Structure formats: structure tokens, C-alpha cells
TrEMBL record:
Residues 58-67 have a biased composition (Basic residues). It comes from Mycolicibacterium alvei. Residues 45-67 are annotated as: Disordered. This is Uncharacterized protein.
Length: 67
């Protein structure tokens, strides 16, 4: 799926590899994890305004432990 990131200057960056996903961090930064590469593309909290595409899912545990 394509991930499109709109930067604060209005330019849109497009990542079009199969398996590209984005991750929004709690500090407001954005990371685009690219399929087949080691280095993700990162944007600071004030460096992007909008993102569209597939969001990376959090891993699910196989067993749920009761507390």
C-alpha cells in the first residue's frame, strides 16, 4: 500500500513499496517503515501535517493473561 506524508511546507512524499507502513509516535513524530530497507523515513512532530495509507499494527499476544 502507498503511504503519503504531507509535510508542513505542503509537499507530499509518497512511499509506494508493497508493505510500507507508518507509525505515529506519542511525541508526535512519524516514522515510515519501508519494506526491505533497514532505515525508516522519519519526520519530527512539527515536520508533517497529514498521513494516509496503512498504519503499522501493534503485535498481538497469543495468550491473554488475567491479572
Amino acid at each position: 500500500m502507498t503511504v503519503q506524508v504531507t509535510r508542513t511546507d505542503g509537499v507530499t512524499d509518497e512511499f509506494a513499496r508493497f508493505g510500507d507502513r507508518y507509525v505515529k509516535h506519542s511525541d508526535g513524530s512519524l516514522e515510515v517503515v519501508r519494506a526491505g530497507t533497514m532505515q525508516p523515513a522519519t519526520y519530527p512532530a512539527d515536520g508533517w501535517t497529514d498521513v494516509a495509507g496503512d498504519e503499522k499494527r501493534k503485535p498481538h499476544r497469543l495468550f491473554h493473561h488475567r491479572t
